[in-house]
């Protein structure tokens, strides 16, 4: 079984951690909580809930900096990104791991695939996400359905080629686009986003939306995209394989785990 590292960026999430840490599958290799100088006892709560948790001090401000700090500390072959506010369900981790072991290099959760959904996205943010997805399809091709969602997993071995340097919420966009740019197989699986349980989000819609916009444009003109790289999603460019995951004793039924269809022609776009 591959070792799985779960990376959780956290800033003043003491009230939410009791709804997150106990749900993480028992057999994961390690749980890394990256603390952004919390003042509410986040670290102490984390230790009380999960004594074996690894606490890492964040280097630099912003979610992107927190994630990059956690990635650098991870020792597993697979890295899973999880939010500390209770919006992402740790019980979905087996679905992401299954998709990786069936051939994907990176797996992104999608709130807009059948079986996914969200309770934490007002209309204006849905509109903005839709615009970002449309821009990415236009500029990069592919058939991605969700861009600004932080529930993702990937093989640690691809990290050096991504050369991540984003410091804010745009890190998720940078990861997806650079994975595609590098020719990695990027899959999507359905995921459900719940509402934040306690506190308020650190996401600032307009400033962070502008950061995502700039990241998309920066990636488009950063370097030519290798021929044959494409984003593939459930039901399009994938062969469906029903899989019952027995990963770490938490059965999760994935109705569709993707297995990429390899085309003999590198110029074929999956869209």
User: What is the 3D form?
Assistant: globular
Q: Into how many domains do the coordinates divide?
A: 1
- For the record, the CATH architecture stands as Alpha-Beta Complex
Beta strand %: 15-25%
What is the structural class? alpha/beta
Encode the helix/strand succession as letters: EEHEHEHEEHEHHEEHEE
Classified by CATH, the class is Alpha Beta
What spatial order of strands do you see in the largest sheet? Answer: 3-2-1-4-7-5-8
Number of strands: 11
Helicity range: 25-40%
Arithmetic mean pLDDT: 80
- Uncertain segments are 225-271
Rg over alpha carbons? 17 Å
- CATH structural fold name: Spore Coat Polysaccharide Biosynthesis Protein SpsA, Chain A
Number of separate helices:
7
Give the full name of the CATH homologous superfamily: Spore Coat Polysaccharide Biosynthesis Protein SpsA, Chain A
Largest sheet: 7 strands, mixed
How far from one another are the termini? 33 Å
């Amino acid at each position: 079984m591959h070792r799985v590292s779960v990376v959780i960026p956290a800033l003043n999430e003491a009230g939410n951690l009791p709804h997150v840490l106990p749900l993480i599958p028992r057999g994961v290799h390690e749980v890394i909580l990256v603390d952004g100088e919390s003042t509410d006892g986040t670290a102490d709560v984390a230790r009380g809930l999960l004594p074996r948790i690894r606490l890492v001090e964040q280097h630099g401000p912003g979610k992107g900096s927190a994630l990059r700090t956690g990635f650098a500390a991870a020792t597993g072959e697979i890295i899973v990104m999880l939010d500390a506010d209770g919006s992402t369900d740790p019980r979905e981790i087996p679905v992401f791991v299954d998709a990786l072991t069936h051939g994907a290099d990176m797996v992104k959760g999608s709130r807009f695939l059948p079986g996914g959904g969200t309770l934490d996205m007002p209309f204006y943010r849905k509109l903005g996400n839709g615009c970002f997805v449309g821009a990415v399809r236009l500029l990069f091709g592919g058939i991605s359905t969700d861009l600004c969602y932080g529930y993702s997993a990937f093989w640690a071995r691809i990290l050096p080629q991504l050369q991540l340097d984003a410091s804010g919420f745009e890190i998720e966009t940078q990861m997806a686009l650079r994975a595609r740019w590098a020719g990695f197989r990027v899959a999507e699986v359905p995921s459900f986003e719940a509402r934040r349980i306690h506190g308020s989000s650190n996401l600032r819609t307009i400033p962070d939306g502008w950061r995502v916009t700039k990241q998309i444009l920066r990636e488009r003109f950063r370097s030519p995209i290798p021929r044959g790289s494409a984003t593939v999603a459930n039901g399009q460019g994938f062969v469906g394989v029903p899989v019952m995951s027995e990963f770490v004793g938490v059965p999760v039924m994935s109705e569709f785990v993707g297995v990429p269809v390899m085309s003999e022609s590198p110029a074929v776009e999956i869209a």
